[in-house]
UniProtKB/TrEMBL annotation:
Residues 378-394 have a biased composition (Acidic residues). It is found in: Nucleus, Nucleolus. It comes from Anabas testudineus. Keywords: Nucleus, Repeat, rRNA processing, WD repeat. Coiled coil: none annotated. Residues 1-39, 362-394 are annotated as: Disordered. Belongs to the WD repeat WDR55 family. WD repeats lie at residues 129-169. Nucleolar protein that acts as a modulator of rRNA synthesis. Plays a central role during organogenesis. This is WD repeat-containing protein 55. One of its GO terms (cellular component) is nucleolus. GO terms for biological process: rRNA processing. Its main location: nucleus. InterPro entries: WD40/YVTN_repeat-like_dom_sf, WD40_repeat_dom_sf, WD40_rpt, WDR55, WDR55/POC1.
Amino acid sequence: MAASSEHVESASTVTEPPELDKTEDGGEPPGPKIRDTPGDIQLEANANTVALHPSRDILVCGDVDGDVYAFSYSCTEGENRELWSSGHHMKSCRQVRFSADGQKLYSVSRDKCIHMLDVERGQLVTRIRKAHESPINSLLLVDENILATGDDVGTLKVWDMRKGTAIMDMKHHEDYISDITVDQAKRILLTTSGDGTMGVFNIKRRRFELLSEYQSGDLTSVALMKRGKKVVCGSSEGTIYIFNWNGFGATSDRFAIKAESVDCIVPITDNIMCTASMDGYIRAINLLPNRVIGCIGQHPGEPIEELAKSWDSRFLVSCGHDQLVKFWDISSLPNMTVNEYRKRKKKDKRMKSLTKKAFGENDFFSGLLDETEKKEEKEEEEEEEEDDSDSGSD
């Protein structure tokens, strides 16, 4: 259900500062606290999807009840505000996406409809009823007029929103389409599916090109890395499959991480991406050399549905089954480098924490973990130096 007026009012009144004239010692009252990241946003239902505005501190999420919410976010404590809510979808909202100019919002749903809303007011502008014969699962905006949608039975449609009609309607997957991406030239569309394949479609020529070889497990996500030279696909079995561009038939490499799944992928740099999993962890991963750099954060014990990056690349946002939207500081991530040489790993070593909130800000053991990690790293370096000296004497 859409948020009631009472809910909206309570959300807005939280941000009002307390009326204090003076502190006990007669000085001015302290100003609002500035955090490293915006505070968590509590929702009324599990969110399936989250998207961030391309130029403003605004996010939108869609939930299992079919509602869409827009929030402004801020690092000033208490300054997250609900802007509007929309209850136009009759069933679960599967994905939301902003237009490139940030003025329009598109959403797709289990109710088989495509909606376009005005971002400022949250009002429904365009609805395409029965856009698919089956529930719609994925959405991609190719440009300001063209969008692509994939449904639960493997049908891909490409729409010209100026006419409100599909210019491509193809079914080459045997199961749901989990994710869609497009190359920089807006020519080749890539899809991942629950049937374990990646699909390749030429949207300029409006034709199907090929399916990749079958992988074990569902392919759940797809992204372009290395300036478009590599395609990475996540899977339900925790393996990342790597394809060369124009080598879509077979993988060039694969990388298994210690995770239950790789459900979504967000590129951060040409080499570094963030992934989310059913185990509730957000991992930073380097591509070639393939390494798990560490943990960005977590929704403890709850699957994560989607990740999104802020317009200024400062924050990563996640939504999970705990009915929370969380913010993570990733501003230092682009400066990280990964050595070709793989260090020895000790058994049962925890993932390295890459943000202050990765294991909880108030975790008593976080300091102990940091000290343990430093000690282990020092021991590893000493071992490596010994190995090097031994090998040099042979």
